[in-house]
Design goal:
This protein folds into three domains: 3-93, 434 Repressor (Amino-terminal Domain); 115-183, no CATH class; 194-275, Immunoglobulin-like, CATH 2.60.40. Helices cover 38% and strands 20% of the residues. The protein is built from eight helices and eleven strands. The protein has helices spanning 3-23, 28-35, 39-47, 56-70, 76-93, 115-138, 141-145, 154-157, and strands at residues 166-168, 175-179, 194-199, 203-209, 212-219, 224-228, 233-237, 243-247, 250-253, 263-267, 273-275. The strands form three sheets. It has a five-stranded antiparallel sheet, with no helix packed on it. It has a four-stranded antiparallel sheet with strand order 6-3-8-9, with no helix packed on it. Strand 1 and strand 2 (175-179) form a beta hairpin. Helix 1 (3-23) crosses helix 3 (39-47), helix 1 (3-23) runs antiparallel to helix 5 and helix 4 (56-70) packs antiparallel against helix 5 (76-93). The radius of gyration is 30 Å and the shape is elongated.
């Protein structure tokens, strides 16, 4: 298998995934809003271009998430197979390195360096590193205030200086070299309310949101469609037992498994729903 075969396969899979996305009338920005996967990564998946992506583990996670949203889970195994081959080829394509040298004998006239000088260099490096660490600790006011093995004062960490503050590890025996800000995990952005309907069989629907009819036709079997919910949605099903509903990421299932005649339901932005009598 050549690199060109791999690239062509990933481009073809990306094209198929894009067609699935267009079938369900979603933009890349819509998928970003639901998954928080950056638009440039989503575009790279569709174009088969993985330059600038992070580690292969994250790439496969992005692909699985994308395929789940556009309803193309059947492409997942083939995607993962080619991505795994891509990772293997990247390792094989790397030029060989001889960090510790090779097993060939030195050329004639070469005199190996004495082990004595290697030890001298090592001692000098360790001494220089120790001196630098000592100097840094002695001149760091935050560490001085915490007496090296104490914690950083709360008034320092809570202020603007927290960007440069150094904190100690939980066991108080080792000083962390990472800034305090590195331990701050940003709050995830709240997910916008949305409604998603999947067709188990052909089902006619009429969807009204904010007094505007957004959908009024038959949804083919096996397809799905979704809308953001700035306000209550009113949905009328021709066959309530032929559709499955997801509201704000929660699976609601079939509106009414026993009903085959028209019924209408309200779906609220807070995740509640009810049948209109």
């Amino acid at each position: 298998m050549s690199a060109s075969d791999r690239d062509e396969a990933l481009k073809e899979l990306g094209r198929m995934a894009r067609e699935r996305r267009e079938d369900v009338q979603l933009s890349l920005e819509d998928i970003f809003e639901r998954t928080r996967v950056r638009v440039e990564f989503l575009r790279g998946i569709e174009e088969g271009n993985y330059q600038g992506f992070p580690d292969i583990v994250y790439v496969k996670g992005f692909v699985r998430t994308y395929l789940s949203v556009v309803g193309a889970e059947d492409l997942k195994d083939e995607f993962v197979s080619w991505l795994n081959k891509s990772a293997v080829m990247r390792v094989q394509d790397l030029p060989p390195t001889n960090v510790l040298g090779n097993s060939t004998f030195p050329t004639k006239g070469f005199k190996p360096a004495s082990h004595f000088w290697l030890f001298v260099v090592l001692i000098l490096v360790l001494a220089g590193s120790g001196g630098y660490v000592w100097y840094s600790w002695a001149n760091n006011p935050i560490v001085a205030n915490s007496r090296v093995f104490g914690s950083v004062p709360a008034e320092v960490v809570s202020g603007e200086e927290s960007r440069d503050a150094f904190i100690t590890s939980p066991d108080q025996n080792f000083l962390s070299i990472f800034p305090a800000s590195a331990n701050v995990v940003p709050e995830p952005e709240p997910q916008k309310p949305y409604l998603l309907v999947k067709a188990k069989r052909d089902v006619w629907m009429k969807v009204t949101i904010a007094d505007k009819v957004l959908f009024s036709k038959t949804l083919p079997s096996g397809s799905e469609v979704s809308w953001d919910l700035p306000s209550r949605a009113k949905v009328t099903y021709g066959r309530p037992n032929a559709a499955e509903v997801v509201l704000n990421g929660r699976e609601l299932g079939v509106p009414n498994p026993r009903a085959s005649k028209t019924e209408t339901y309200f779906y609220e932005t807070d995740g509640t729903h009810r049948r209109v009598q």
